[in-house]
Amino acid sequence: MSAPTSSIAPIGTTYTSLLKVYSSPSKTGALKHKLGQAGTGYLRALDSYPVLTKAYTSAVLNAISEITASYLAGRKDKSATSAAAKQNGLPPYLTARVPKMAAFGFFVSAPLSHYLVSWLQKGFKGKVGPFWKLLQILTSLVTVTPIMSTVLLASMSVVAGARSFKQVLASIKLGFFPVVKSNWLISPIAMFIAQNYLPPQLWTIFFSILAFFVSTYNNYIVKSRAIDGRNKAAKKSDSQVTLKKEETEESNKNE
Predict the structure, then answer these.
(1) Per-residue confidence (pLDDT) for residue 132, from 0 to 100
(2) Mind telling me which residue stretches traverse the membrane in this protein (predicted)?
(3) Residues 103/104/110/111 CA torsion (nearest 10 deg)
């Protein structure tokens, strides 16, 4: 499996072509013109500063993902969210995890993904045909996916409060196979789309956007389960207190 080669225009040609398409607001509309300018500006930055642009993109997407998941999950636990809002004066979904997730995207996720994908593309450069495309997908599944999953789990455990190597290792062991399995289901489809429809320079951005939706959903599920668990524990505790109170009242009556 090969990365697209000479049949795909360089990214500089790509944003130049887009600029021509969106250059006339009288024909395409003001909104389309502004979107075109933003798109070409982003592609120009991606061409000039690939790692830095991807780092900023990943940081923003990670922060939005954390905020979105916290907001959606927080709607199920209104009492806790209102208490948190009163405590610090900020919306309950603006937690300390937001800047940490942004930092993870900027300093870890984006650079690592950039160099891993670049290595994968260089390894299959010039190799064309279905066999090589399939081999590139398989290579990605057994190299890039496990590496990114391990780094993600280790980083998330630190963000969650792990401070020792044993705690980080335990988090990796607990989540490694579920994360890898889910990525193995999604990655082949994403890689197929990237191989056939995207220039190599946009692969990392495409994977980052896809990861945004997947991580937001997974984050929401994890937070929702945690809230459900706390609610069940609270109800159980309340029922035990009520039962003990009733037993005490009954005992007093008998006396």
Answers:
(1) 93
(2) 101-117, 137-162, 174-194, 200-222
(3) 90
